[in-house]
Amino acid sequence: MDGFLRIFRITGLGTVSTGNLVMDLVGLLFIYLAIKKHYEPLLLIPIGFGILLANVPPIIIAGEQIFYTSVGNPNSQMYYLYYGVLTGVYPPLIFLGIGALTDFSYLISNPKLVLLGAAAQFGIFVTYFGALKLGFAAKQAGAIGIIGGADGPTAIFLSSMLAPELIAPIAIAAYSYMALVPVIQPPIMMLLTTKKERLIRMNPPREVSKLEKVIFPIATFIICTILAPGSSILLGMLMFGNLLRESGVTERLAQTARTSFVDIVTILIGVSVGCSASAETFLTPKSIKIFVLGACSFAIATASGVIFAKILNWVGKEPINPLIGAAGVSAVPDSARVAQMVGNKEDPTNFLLMHAMGPNVAGVIGSAIAAGVLWAILAG
């Protein structure tokens, strides 16, 4: 019996909690949505399995609880993997890969589409004030607001700078809404547009020269970081990655950045973020408020992009299909695909994807600038 009791003590059977089981179900739900529904599988599977890792029950040795997979335990290997999240190291590396993957041609060919990306960031600042009303501190409110950009790396970066204690719920909320873009956005887009507007055909984009593609990342970085120096690291890595792609002389580096490199960092950031979602840190009233605020922020950002596209139609001569305004949130390329999907239901011969990529990549730039502005204002 003594031997049995000793064996029992080194299992988690006596320490597993209801909270651990609830979070295990959340992790399994993420994995299910990734495999069955194909909702951002490259993100949800690492995060979902990370949640399972986070909720391995502790064992008790000499009256002390030992957490083998806790990001807060210096004796756990996850502590060191999570360091890249806590210090904001992973997000700029992700942006490097995104830059190497992104074609800015559609934005260069129609520069006014950058306004749609800017308009979609309105949800960030509305949510900031909403978070203040709910009792969050100013720094915490700023980190929560960025969820509306639907940009997981930016949300992690800003929360690591302003509110590291809230990284887990903020990061998981941001990545969850990124994955649920095809579910959340279409009803808002349908509600705010008429059938006639959804049938609008846009003029074909003009051909962009190689010189323009090379100048764009350099000029964008210089101009934007003069206006918002706080965005320099995220925007700098994004534009550096794009310059590798467009220069024509660094194809090996660009190929690495957009494939194996970004895949490795995605695995690390996904598992690390998931592993921070233990029952003790995640199942709290603050986390619930963050998820509600994040949903509101994302909905407002989507609506803002659509409404601003309608305004541009009223004041401009060149037709814009308002559906592409929803792509102003920086969930690349899912929100652009949603614009194509909704428009395709109205007219299967109307192809909006290439037009939607303009505001979509503008949204990536916009969310980075918004994060830089919030960081500069609130960090002091």
Distance between the termini: 60 Å
Strand order of the largest sheet: 1-2
Helix content: 55-70%
Question: In oligomeric terms, what are we looking at?
Answer: single chain
Q: Largest sheet at a glance?
A: 2 strands, antiparallel
Structural class: mainly alpha
Tally of separate domains: 1
Series of secondary-structure elements, N-terminal to C-terminal:
HHHEEHHHHHHHHHHHHHHHHHH
Question: What is the strand content?
Answer: under 5%
Number of helices: 21
How many E strands? 2
| Shape verdict | globular
Uncertain runs are: none
Rg over alpha carbons? 22 Å
Mean pLDDT across the residues is 90
Give a brief outline of the structure.
This protein is mostly helical and 380 residues long.
Characterization of the model:
The chain is mostly helical. The chain has one domain (85-378). Helix content is 70%, strand content 2%. It has helices at 2-9, 18-36, 41-54, 77-81, 83-86, 90-101, 105-109, 114-119, 122-133, 138-145, 152-162, 167-179, 181-192, 195-198, 210-227, 232-246, 251-275, 279-282, 285-315, 334-346, 353-378; strands spanning 59-61, 64-66. Strand 1 and strand 2 form a beta hairpin. Helix 6 runs antiparallel to helix 11 (152-162) and helix 6 (90-101) packs across helix 17. The termini are far apart. The mean pLDDT is 90.
Give the topology, please.
Elements: H1 2-9, H2 18-36, H3 41-54, E1 59-61, E2 64-66, H4 77-81, H5 83-86, H6 90-101, H7 105-109, H8 114-119, H9 122-133, H10 138-145, H11 152-162, H12 167-179, H13 181-192, H14 195-198, H15 210-227, H16 232-246, H17 251-275, H18 279-282, H19 285-315, H20 334-346, H21 353-378
Antiparallel strand pairs: 1-2
